[in-house]
Amino acid sequence: MFNIGPGELVIILILALVLLGPKRLPEVARTVGKGMRELRRATEDLKGSVESEFYKLEHPESPKPALRPAEGRTIPIETAAAPQASPNAPPPPDAPAGEPPSPSTGEASTATDLTRTS
Fold it and tell me: Which helix (H) or strand (E) element contains residue 19?
């Protein structure tokens, strides 16, 4: 950002320690850090405002899509219907405990068994 090398940074830190002293240096460093943080926030806010205005100029008919829905509105979540075995069918006798029952032989299975190797 400032094109300061490690040697130059050490010289600046030593000068700051000599000029400010060990008691005042942490306070000044905190103040400088807060100022830089506020400057970064302000530039990000300005950047967002400018981008928003340019977007409005390019697309006057539609507002910029929001990251969140407006208050009081919800986004519907679509779920994929997974094939399930009938609830009355007993699990096969060789099925390990804790695994869901596999579909019966008469039904087409769309699930892929990744545990078997050829």
Answer: helix 6-20
Q: Which domain holds residue 53?
A: 22-63
DSSP letters, 47-61, are HHHHHHHHHHHH-TT
d(CA 9, CA 39): 21
Alpha-carbon distance of 27 to 16, in angstroms, equals 12
Tens-level pLDDT at each residue, the chain (118 residues)? 568 899 998 999 899 999 999 999 999 999 999 999 999 999 999 999 999 988 888 887 765 555 665 666 666 666 555 555 556 666 666 655 555 555 555 444 455 555 555 5
CA distance 87 to 101: 9
How many angstroms separate the Cα of 11 from the Cα of each of 2, 23, 61? 15, 19, 56
In a domain, 34, yes or no: yes
Answer whether residue 106 is part of any domain: no
